[in-house]
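Thread: assembly with ligand

MN 10:42: here's the input set. Chains plus the small molecule as SMILES. Want everything predicted jointly, not piecewise.
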Amino acid sequence: MPIGPYQSPLALISDSETDHHHQALPETPAVAQAAAPAGLRLRGIDKRFGDNHVLKGIDLDVPVGQFVAIVGKSGCGKSTLLRLLVGLDEPTGGEISFYGEGGDTIEPNARIVFQEPRLLPWISVADNVAVGLGDGVSRQTGRQEAQRALAAVQLSEKAGDWPSKLSGGQRQRVALARALVSRPGLLALDEPLGALDALTRLGMQELVTDVWRELGFTAVLVTHDVGEAVHLADRVIVLDEGRISLDLEISQSRPRRHGDPVLAELEGKLLDTILGKA
Ligand SMILES: Nc1ncnc2c1ncn2[C@@H]1O[C@H](COP(=O)(O)OP(=O)(O)O)[C@@H](O)[C@H]1O
Ligand SMILES: [Mg+2]
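BT 11:07: finished. Tokens for the full assembly:
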């Protein structure tokens, strides 16, 4: 992607800031409100790229505030489904709608975090986070909200640093803060920890759980790591050849321990389904 001095910073990060589900951010008040978590209702979602029929009539209900993980073989359509959820792409057929706690239809404030943090190297960590608020927010409000989001990801002390000074895990926490700063009702995570080393990843898993519990958004996490899926989610969905082949509830209470035999059992069941042994 060409990076020039006159390009809007938002354009460099993700198209999600301009998608059709979003309303323009009003001046200050919006960010001062609590998130309204968005439930998801998918009916007959189809997605084709030419002859490639990627999603074949997905029906899915995600209750308000649930943490769902989506797993499946590479190329099975996980990222495609996430992009549809946050409005980065349109389904070929079917309906996606969002509802609030009372069951009323709402516009979700949807955000997405990718595997690469996509930070702007020439502005500070705090300004990178404030970019997530979009236009129409005063500099002072932007600063305050960025500080709050950085505190949520335990990076307050890095606010004034350049992104280049941070470790990979810290950069990904900044990307998470940028997604959280506008208080999303739906947070989509596309293999957000996939590029991190094993120990950093475990720490990040706890952080993601903590912010989800604290902020109360609905979370949809795509991961290729079934251990991560059962550790984090209330429910794990397996996608296979464009359809949901398993929808597994993970009712184990939190905090969850790595090596928990109940979770290991569920992990095995998921792997068998993905590998076609079930
Ligand atoms: N923008 C696109 N144009 C054409 N084909 C695409 C596009 N995005 C994804 N695909 C195709 O859709 C299928 C699913 O891709 P993807 O959702 O990225 O899989 P996953 O995230 O599960 O690995 C693949 O065959 C991929 O080539
Ligand atoms: Mg993908």
